[in-house]
Amino acid sequence: MLHAQVNKPKTVEYTLNIADTTVNYTGKRVKAIAVNGSIPAPTLYFTEGDTAVIHVHNEMNVSTSVHWHGILLPNLMDGVPYLTTPPIEPGKTFTFRFPLIQSGTYWYHSHTMLQEQSGLYGSIVIQPIKKRYQVDGELVLVLSDWTNEKPASVLTTLKRRDAANEYYALEKGYPQSLDKLLKHHAWGERLKAAYNRMPPMDISDVYYNRFFINGTTELDFSKYKPGQKIRLRVINGSASSYFYLQYAGGKMELIAADGVDVQPVFIDRLLMGVAETYDFIITVPTNGAYEFRSTAIDVTGHASVFIGQGNKIMAPDIPKPNVWKMSETIHNLTVNMPGRMNMGNMNMRLKKGGHMGNMPMDKQTMGSSKNEMVQQSNPMQKTSVEKKVNQNMDMPVMSAVKSDTTGKFIMFNYDMLKSFTPTNLPQGNPTREITLNLTGNMYRYVWSINNKTISQQDSIAVKKGENVRLILVNKTMMNHPMHLHGHYFRVLNKNGDYSPLKHTVDVPPMTTVVIEFAANQDKDWFFHCHILYHLASGMARYIHYEGSERDTALANYPLKKILNEDKQWFFYGSLAAKSMMTEFNANYINMSNAIRTEANTNYNGQYEINLSYERYITNWFRPYIGVATVRQKYYNVFSGKEIFQQEFDLPVVGIRYTLPFFIESDLRINSAGRVRLQLESDEWLLPHVFFNWRINTDKEYHLDLQYLLSKYISLSGGYDSRYQWGGGLLVRF
Ligand SMILES: [Cu+2]
Fold first, then answer.
1. Is this model's pTM higher than 0.85 or not?
2. What mean pLDDT is predicted for residues 494-507?
């Protein structure tokens, strides 16, 4: 403790005006949301013990909300619209008022739909009454990701099942095309995964045009002098991007996580989950402006802050991941997992032909050596999954590093987080243990918990006075930053009684993380994945305190409004005008339903129109009803002779089922009793070239090559057994 300061608690008042704006980050004017004219929103400064009074005025023509991330406050002030707080309607003001009973680095953001992606996020700094560290300067650094696309189009892109969906991978330079798979000797692995209907690995879902620190790609702080100690308050305010943090001027001393002081550790690199905050102290070296860099997890871009004077000294580049070989990539994504040994170099690879490739994909587990603490406290983990984890790695063990500013490269993991004081939950409380499988279907882009989205299963019931232990089992191939509102939880790690407190925990792919908290609140608190598009697709619950009622202020704001966000409808399709035919397809889909139209015609009186309504029973199986209109003749491909013709306008019923290798099957019968089985699939041959094939028991086949000119336009051509050869232009919408 240094200078103990005497602060008189005071009321600190802010007014935030939320308004539509336009920005131009890449030479293109795009709509965005600004707070008091700025993106990110202004930093709010307080001192522990103050009362915050924040007037939030909505100048947009849609409703909005602000959530104070990581702040412990009364339920009504938490800012989740319809759940805890009334939405802020257009033209209206809501005044938040809450005492600040904690100190540290926090942030705030919209909790309405996808507004956060458009710019509605900002930082909060609460100075402690007694400062633990004296520094020469403080920098608040808000990390974010920026897309020129409308966030709603991003979500539609993630939901659609056509080449536009693959376009992000292409833009990132990671096309999962046949040539790349062969080049990286990953064809066998991919084939095995496709057999299990696992789409190619996405380290990140979205292609971003820019990554920012404080709204820009490069910032200079040349006022700092050699030897000065600077505190960095780093906030990952991005919508869906994890970042690697590095500093060119030596090791970073990590002193706080999610606003809470931890025993200092020196690290070289840290993988920061969405919505986490970390504080570091760095020392400005002599002769140079040293780079603090945040690199997106998929290594498609970074943002930099230069601290000090003189020539720029860069942090080392992080190598691009080998996204074609899942077994290599996933290893790098599990760095945070408690119990995971991180050694000298994060680029360490699994041995060739290692464990991953030999296991069925749905049983794969990566990353850990023994984690005794977790195992002692949690019998649940002695599952076959965990046993596999323990057998999996044969890595050397590196001793915990403390106060070591030299020596080996240190990659951060959660075992390095150690509280200053014991964090044990109140003894004698009954313990409620809940296993939450983090689940999802990447193919359909539906994200869930225990295979149910929030609209299908909304709450987790707890009782006040319980200790609640959540066993988070990530069954997916992506990292999920799970965030609990209104509470701090312990992340059980090797530090036992001194396990750290957090509000957001990264759960790496195919791993298990255990958290626990004292249920000492009431009402309802959101618990969700903080990847915006996962949240919007259903990966959320709310913690409900049994016996407590919603605030009367919410009487006119039905809870269903926020729970049903994952039932949103999406529309997409394509129109191809070719020399021999025109093809049209349109899809209107939501989580459990799809209305689809396909139509095609030559220019000679032949046509086919199919309209169907399908219902998802599982992610793969959907019965449907519809109408089929057909006026067509079929030819032999070699002789060109007509084989047969069909003419009808009839109701049909059928089933569609996604087979291994993502082959879409469609079995239907029309009211005249005629049965048709059809198979169809896409193959990604070269980065810009797709091959689509379709064949059915009407002896109809359709072979089509597509060359992607852009996300929405392709050249398309091939052979159709009814309409024969031809080519033209295809436009997606
Ligand atoms: Cu997620």
1. yes
2. 98
